[in-house]
Amino acid sequence: MTLRLLSVTSELHPLIKTGGLADVAGALPLALAQHGVEVRSLLPAYPQVLRAAAQARPKAVHSYKALFGGPAKLLAVKLAGHDLLLLDSPSLFGLREGGPYSELSGHDWPDNWRRFAALSAVAADVAAGAVKGWQADVVHAHDWQAAMTAAYVRHGRAPATPVVLTVHNLAFQGRFDARIFPELGLPAECFSVEGVEYYGGVGFLKAGLQYADSITTVSPTYADEIRTPAFGMGLDGLLRGRGDAVQGIVNGIDSREWDPAADPHLAAPFSARSPGGRVANRRAIEKRFALKRGKGPIFALISRLTWQKGIDLIVDSVEHIVAHGGRLVVLGSGDSAFEGALLGAAHRHRGQIGVITGYDEPLAHLMQGGCDAILIPSRFEPCGLTQLYGLRYGTIPVAARTGGLADTIIDANEAALTAGCATGILHPAGAGDALKAAISRAIALHGTPGIWQAMRRQGMRADFGWDRSSARYAALYRALLDRSPAS
């Protein structure tokens, strides 16, 4: 039996992307098709999304005279392999100078509560049958931007529809002043500890955690970590209280999008069996970042430049990398202090360090295909996709032992090296000396080509596609539907 799923997300690759959420929201629906799950994805109609959809002739399937301050309509369109519902609300998602969530200055849009409450309320309407001829069996909401869907479903016209909430990063919670509550359109009793109230204000993610039938995180280790005070970001008590409703399902990657044997962004294709093309990609990296040629490893950093990602630890390790014969290339943006520190390091060590600020998807592919190792010293990491791309492309991850990094990388300790199953180098999270020690291990192993090539092959042969994870999601949806009173 086909199961109809409504996926609710604020971004979806390849239409709009700021991070890993877009990759998951873009790849999971495609993988679910093989399990008999028919997915429609609800997404804000940002200007770039509307431009992409224009050629496909979207059709209006529902309208609102006044949706959180202005008229809006739902557009149905098939695009990039997806069956989409686009929330076209000019007052909420029309042209703005900035990103999906923030102004050019980096400050959040002051009406984010209104924008994503609207997305969630519309999701509940769709779940209740607002789109003629289609009604969801299960709703899957992603992160705080869609988390209020669970509250609107529970207090709307489809209260029995099961809702799954996936937490991609608990640090981003959608917290707002209590003054917004009367405008949310929820019953007065929802403003309580058992509802949307959170430390005297309104918590969008907290509401989702409270009302969702099932909560998933993007790795098993992260599911355990967030139920502790150290990683729970103030929500660990609630998460512990949800018991077995919380589980971790590790992210996958789109193995068609990320395939070194057929990647158009590479200088030359390669595979685990025929790795020769990596040489051309390495040369392309040296040229792009103006690096001097050398025998030592090229370390990559592809990341948001934030404290969570451990960028301060990398800044502190720059001299160590250079002193031991390594080189470093950086692609990312974020904290201006970290950007400045890395650009300063590139200026001091011309030919050894190269930095490009911003984000460039084709360059990210080339870096995975041409660098030797990728640094991921995150203080916490719900899953991480960068290390999965690295493994797929033979760029060995040097990563903190936390969250999904711990779940997906086999450390190159003596036992793993002897058994031939090592795929990367893990170190304790949050410690600069530990990162430097891991970098030294990587440089030493790189100097032993037989071992390094064996690790590279092992990582490239690992299966981190969506097949297994999508099967787990499909099983979860069906289990919830079986338990639903409406089934």
Describe the structure.
By secondary structure, the protein is an alpha/beta fold. Helix content is 38%, strand content 19%. The strands form three sheets. It has a nine-stranded mixed β-sheet, sandwiched between helices. The mean pLDDT is 96.
Features:
487 residues, alpha/beta, Rossmann fold, 2 domains, 9-stranded mixed β-sheet, 6-stranded parallel β-sheet, 19 helices, 18 strands, globular
For the biggest sheet, the summary is: 9 strands, mixed
Q: Strand order across the biggest sheet? A: 3-4-5-2-1-6-7-11-12
User: What is the domain tally?
Assistant: 2
The helix count comes to 19
**Looking at the chains present, what oligomeric state does this protein adopt?**
single chain
**Named CATH topology of the largest domain:** Rossmann fold
Work out the strand percent: 15-25%
The average pLDDT score comes to: 96
What top-tier CATH class of the largest domain fits best? Alpha Beta
Distance N to C terminus: 13 Å
CATH hierarchy: architecture of the largest domain: 3-Layer(aba) Sandwich
Cα-based radius of gyration, to the nearest Å: 23 Å
Helical coverage, percent range: 25-40%
Q: Supply the CATH superfamily name of the largest domain.
A: Glycogen Phosphorylase B
